[in-house]
Amino acid sequence: MEALKQIIRDIPDFPKKGIIFKDIAPLLGDPVQFTTVVDHLKERYTGKKIDHVVGIEARGFIFAATLAYALGAGCVMVRKPGKLPYKTFQQTYDLEYGTDTVEIHQDALKEGGRVVVIDDVLATGGTMAATVDLIRENFKAEIVEAAFIIELTFLNGRDKLKDLPLYSVMEF
Ligand code: AMP
Questions:
Q1: In ligand 1, which atom is closest to the CA atom of 157?
Q2: Is the peptide bond before 165 cis (omega within 30 degrees of 0)?
Q3: Which H or E run includes 26?
Q4: Could you report the per-residue pLDDT of 117-144, keeping only the tens digit for each?
Q5: What confidence tier does 96 reach under pLDDT thresholds 50, 70, 90?
Q6: Average of pLDDT values for 145-169?
Q7: Where are the domains of the chain?
């Protein structure tokens, strides 16, 4: 785990001043560490009858796709507005300044389906909370867990996701 944490690169003041961006590119680029993370998640969800892994744009897609493949599950995209070509459901949520929206295709999930939702970083939790609302309000699917590669514990994102099982591979 320490070797894994050390491979995450801190980029100060990106994309704006005051933010320390957790760059996962070195992790993705390392054949051993990338495989380790995906295998670790595979082990966690094997036998849990997962139908779909939902990834949040954009870095969440990388882990959603690899994990879905490893589990023999389907992969679903939650995207920023205007990117998905078919009919969508939408959920708008508050940011520090303004709002943002996430979208999903209307036929993406099935009734009674068991779902893992994944993103690279849990920061304030707003994006995941909106994604969970988007799924719960529009589909009769069960969210088995929300998973993250990195959790920034000092931002207390878990407080926004209290009614949901959460898992993070590493904490900072
Ligand atoms: P939040 O909604 O605040 O939990 O932010 C989560 C989203 O923003 C995730 O999709 C992350 O990719 C991205 N994000 C937020 N903060 C950071 C950070 N410090 N480093 C890298 N990505 C971040």
A1: 4
A2: no
A3: helix 25-29
A4: 999 999 999 999 999 999 999 999 999 9
A5: confident
A6: 97
A7: 48-171
Cα-to-chain-centroid distance, residue 57? 8
Judge if the beta carbon of residue 120 lies within 6 A of ligand 1: yes
Query: What are the CA-CA distances from residue 31 to residues 9, 15, 19, 25, 38 (Å)?
Result: 16, 27, 28, 12, 11
CATH class name, domain 48-171: alpha beta
- Cβ of 56 less than 6 Å from ligand 1: yes
So what's the pLDDT on residue 27? Answer: 98
| Residue type (1 letter), 22 | K
Reference 78, options 107, 52, 103, 50; nearest CA is 103
Q: Ligand 1 centroid vs 126 CA: distance in angstroms?
A: 9
